[in-house]
UniProtKB/TrEMBL annotation:
NCBIfam families: PRK05461.1 (NF003967). Residues 1-125 form the ApaG domain. PROSITE patterns: APAG. GO terms for biological process: error-free translesion synthesis. Gene3D superfamilies: ApaG domain. PANTHER family: F-BOX ONLY PROTEIN 3 (PTHR14289), POLYMERASE DELTA-INTERACTING PROTEIN 2 (PTHR14289:SF16). This is Protein ApaG. It comes from the Bacteria.
Amino acid sequence: MIEQPLICTQIQSVYLESQSIPEEERYVFAYTVTIRNLGRSRVQLLSRYWLITNGNGSKTEVRGDGVVGEQPVILPASEFQYTSGAVLETPLGMMEGYYEMVDHLGHPFQVLIPVFRLAIPIMIH
């Protein structure tokens, strides 16, 4: 029987006011992702997929190898953390997606990333 890898993700987003230009409809956000391997064997992150939706409902898809230029191997009981960013035309938006990973035997699997919000502080209530 093949043991399904147990991966947990946690995401925190922040508005980067110093890099944003609201008059030009440019809102910059950073998000930090922590990927924890709660399983008993190593896994590797190969690629990512993001669906970014701005406040007007406009959608952008982002696909690519790894994250921040890496395809990290995450050992059991350890984690990998990275920070990246997104630029929206609206002060409110959301992201969701998945990671394509492989287990220690090379079997592929997906880790879904639930929807999280990108919002300037005055938009959160």
